[in-house]
């Protein structure tokens, strides 16, 4: 039996952590023993342990800064935290006696170094889209480390594979779609007073994350979409009150008092006041939401993979998305989604108004992509590719 140590920093269920859960659920346990190393406890831990997967917590786990200047205090802090944690990763690789170390995000690529030097097979999972022509020195250093200290690279789409551009080591494995254990019913009318027979309901799954475009989406609905029968469901808006503790919270309070609030507080202000925006706590049960809503919105402020595009089209649910390379790949070059320029609030407003007034057209658009997306994101096909990757690494290890 071959031991695989999966390393990740997020314990909430969503994005890369959800994909990691799906990956391990489909793992052939007659060949492989999964072991998971996370930064903190959370719902993901319970999911793994309920399936008999060993989970360990290492609080020093860090990530490198994503799309940020190196000359920022936070960036320096993250790089330092990463360096300090390298010995702890070495410790866990040795303690678990892992044969394969699977790093579940490019943003932890330095962890490939101690694992590779210990003679382990190392996989770096490329989930990110590093914006082209930005922070080139950081990206080229990342490419150098990944190229020299990984045995295999898994990219979640063609966009990420082309961006990293190490074709001799890279395989594409799409983050397959699996709604098992995500299909609990959410009755919008009973729980939130939303009548989907009377209201046209839009769904935004980015919570209050600015990187997901939360402020832009919320502000457009607040200022420009003021019809009473148009609702926005904001999934993951667990905290809309202002911060009250700490020095940073004190500075934010001063800025609010002089009418110069930070962007995050502007967002919270809208959410506190706007009645047509419905807050839904974070939940993994999204299938019934996809099936009930009128349209989904995905509007990241910097390019990155947008799984809700694939999940929406999978269910035949219309979607408005920022026009990124990933969005084009997932929507069959725009044939199955409304794509708009990234960071363009005017285009977002116009797309929402178009969707409101053209129900049949947007539904037909989404249905055009159902077969395409179900083939590309098929669980059986993609999990088989991953199994082959692991097995080949095992074969190479046994011949040395």
Structural description of this entry:
With 400 residues, the protein is of the alpha/beta class. The protein folds into two domains: 2-174 and 378-398, 3-Layer(aba) Sandwich (Rossmann fold), CATH 3.40.50; 188-376, Rossmann fold. The protein is 44% helix and 15% strand. The protein is built from 17 helices and 13 strands. The protein has a seven-stranded parallel beta sheet, with helices on both faces. The protein has a six-stranded parallel beta sheet with strand order 10-9-8-11-12-13, sandwiched between helices. Strand 2, helix 2 and strand 3 (54-57) form a beta-alpha-beta unit. Helix 8 packs across helix 14.
User: What would the principal axes of the Cα set say about the shape?
Assistant: globular
How much of the sequence is in beta strands? 15-25%
Strand runs, count: 13
**What is the ordering of alpha helices and beta strands?**
EHEHEHEHEHEHEHEHEHHEHEHEHEHHHH
CATH architecture of the largest domain: 3-Layer(aba) Sandwich
State the helix count.
Answer: 17
Spans with pLDDT under 50 lasting ≥5 residues?
none
Q: How would you sum up this structure in a few lines?
A:
The chain is globular, with a radius of gyration of 22 Å. It has helices at about 15-25, 45-50, 75-95, 110-115, 135-150, 160-165, 190, 215-225, 245-255, 265-275, 285-290, 305-315, 325-330, 345-355, 360-365, 370-375, 380-400, and strands at about 1-5, 30-40, 55, 100-105, 120-125, 150-155, 170, 200-205, 230-235, 275-280, 295-300, 320, 340. It is about 45% helix and about 15% strand.
């Amino acid at each position: 039996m071959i031991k695989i140590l999966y390393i990740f920093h997020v314990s909430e269920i969503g994005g890369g952590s959800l994909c990691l859960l799906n990956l391990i659920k489909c793992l052939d346990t007659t060949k492989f023993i999964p072991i998971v190393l996370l930064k903190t406890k959370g719902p993901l831990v319970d999911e793994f342990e309920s399936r008999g997967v060993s989970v360990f917590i290492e609080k020093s786990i860090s990530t490198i800064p994503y799309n940020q200047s190196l000359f920022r205090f936070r960036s320096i802090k993250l790089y330092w935290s990463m360096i300090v944690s390298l010995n702890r990763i070495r410790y866990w690789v040795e303690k678990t006696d892992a044969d394969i170390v699977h790093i579940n995000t490019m943003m932890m690529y330095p962890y490939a170094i101690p694992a590779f030097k210990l003679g382990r097979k190392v996989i770096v999972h490329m989930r990110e889209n590093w914006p082209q022509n930005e922070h080139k020195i950081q990206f080229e250093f990342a490419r150098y480390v990944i190229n020299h200290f990984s045995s295999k690279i898994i990219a979640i789409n063609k966009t990420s594979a082309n961006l990293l551009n190490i074709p001799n080591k890279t395989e594409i494995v799409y983050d397959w779609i699996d709604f098992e254990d995500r299909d609990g019913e959410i009755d919008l009318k009973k729980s939130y007073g939303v009548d989907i027979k009377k209201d046209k309901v839009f769904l935004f799954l980015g919570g209050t994350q600015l990187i997901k475009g939360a402020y832009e989406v919320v502000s457009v609905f607040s200022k420009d979409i003021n019809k009473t029968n148009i609702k926005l469901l904001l999934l993951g808006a667990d905290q809309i009150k202002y911060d009250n503790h700490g020095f940073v919270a004190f500075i934010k309070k001063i800025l609010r008092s002089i009418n110069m609030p930070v962007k995050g507080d502007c967002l919270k202000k809208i959410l506190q006041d706007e009645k047509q925006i419905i807050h839904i706590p974070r939940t993994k049960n999204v299938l019934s939401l996809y099936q009930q809503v009128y349209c989904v919105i995905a509007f990241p402020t910097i390019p990155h993979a947008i799984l809700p595009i694939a999940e929406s089209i999978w269910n035949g649910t219309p979607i408005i998305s920022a026009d990124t390379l990933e969005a084009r790949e997932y929507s069959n070059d725009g044939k199955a989604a409304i794509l708009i320029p990234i960071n363009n609030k005017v285009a977002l407003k116009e797309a929402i108004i178009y969707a409101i007034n053209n129900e049949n057209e947007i539904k037909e658009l989404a249905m055009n992509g159902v077969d395409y997306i179900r083939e590309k994101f098929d669980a059986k096909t993609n999990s088989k590719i991953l199994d082959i990757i692991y097995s080949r690494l095992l074969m190479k290890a046994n011949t040395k």
